[in-house]
Structure prediction request, 334 residues.
Amino acid sequence: MIALHDLKKVYRQAGRDIPALDGVTLAVPSDSVHAVVGQSGAGKSTLVRCIALLDRPTSGTVEIDGVELTAVRATELRKARRRLGVVFQNANLFDSRTIIGNVAYPLELAGVGRAQRTAKAKELLGLVGLAEAGGAFPAQLSGGQRQRVGIARALATDPDVLLCDEPTSALDPATTSEILDLIAALKARLGLAVVVITHEMTVVKRIADSVSLLEAGKVIESGPLEQAVARFGSRLSETLLALPATSGLPQAGITIEVLDQTGPAEVPALTSVGRQLGVDLPIVAGVVEHLGEATFGRYRAVVPSALDPGEVLTQLRQRGAQAELSQAVAGVAR
Prediction:
């Protein structure tokens, strides 16, 4: 487990204090993936550096399984970092070293003997699906293969935490899918606590168990993925269930926003209400996502002018959906 408590980082620039992290508190259990999302400048890169102790936090703590890494003296810092494996956006491999040499490098720094570190590197390359690539050089591998090497290298010291900084942003969709599947498999197999820094919602939806939104160095929203999506009108919910752009509306009426969570055999609330009222409630924009054990649907629908929108909202809420008025359509007042 990794725990961050009230983590702050302030940089001094041109005689001014610039806060980059402002009281970040997170807990990520073992065998789980926590995604941190946010716009450029939100503090994600600083968070990575502070968690990995590449940059000392101004205050606050980083703990792994109850051991406070931020309290470690500078002379013992390298040893403390072995509890963390870091995967960067670009694999940052040594071009002059073979793949085995790259994976074994952290063990070389730790003073592990040649035979032992070579055996460990071969084992890890097998784990990430590159058992036959040990004698190759980075230039001979694809981008996805190089990222796999980076993951193997991050696991060389048997860390408890895997920190992934935009691990798929430079990869094509197919390779991205492969790398995310690999991270999820390694998390389960090794019992890792994984922190993924990303701006890609596909990454969050694919592998995250929980998620936080970082803004101006602060955690604005956070929680288990399903709970975050279920918070109707929240930033995370609207981002993870982003509606497509719409052009043109089918008829006059009042639009409503609906967030529905259904099980495998359940009928969506909009469909159920429409059947009961004997009318069509046209959906002008919608998205359905299967996240965790639930299916979420977010819709923008039109309540025809002949119906009372309040009654429609009541019927939807009675069926467990969350719904609110959105806007008038075709000149009909709200």
Q: What stands out?
A: The first helix runs from residue 44 to 51. Confidence is low (pLDDT under 50) at residues 328-334. The domain at 241-329 is CATH 3.30.70.260 (Alpha-Beta Plaits). The longest strand covers residues 16-28.
